[in-house]
Specification:
This protein is mainly α and 130 residues long. The protein has helices at residues 10-73, 77-106, 112-129. The two termini are 30 Å apart.
């Protein structure tokens, strides 16, 4: 003797599917939030390099302004030395800013796990509807 099969009504099935989909969407949002936090952590290192470059650029600007002041107060030798120092700082700042920008471009902030999970959820939902 076989066990009697329990027949579920269509509204019950649709209610279960809707409930499952709600839980899945909530889980995907939690996953996306976690992935975005991880991506933000990756940005911190290059951001520090970029900030250091900006600080050096400001110092370079300060030395260039000091060179202009020295150029007015002393005729030749003093301002030339200051101009060279300011130029070297400006070049160093440019290198740091460029390196930090390049590192930021390599950081991948795409929530890959979330996208894969959503694709799997979509396939699951399609199978449930069939």
């Amino acid at each position: 003797m076989t066990a009697p099969q329990m027949q579920r009504s269509v509204p019950d099935i649709l209610e279960d599917i809707a409930s499952n989909l709600t839980q899945i969407v909530q889980a995907e949002f939690r996953l996306a939030k976690t992935e975005l936090k991880e991506g933000a952590g990756k940005v911190a290192g290059p951001g520090a390099s970029l900030s250091a470059g900006v600080v050096l650029a400001l110092y370079g600007l300060g030395f260039l302004l000091l060179a202009a002041v020295n150029a007015l107060s002393l005729v030749m030798a003093g301002w030339l030395a200051t101009l060279i120092v300011g130029g070297v700082l400006a070049i160093a700042a440019g290198i740091l800013i460029s390196a930090g920008g390049a590192k930021l471009k390599r950081v991948n902030l795409t929530p890959d796990k979330t996208i894969r999970a959503l694709e799997e959820d979509l396939q699951w939902a399609k199978q449930q509807i069939k």
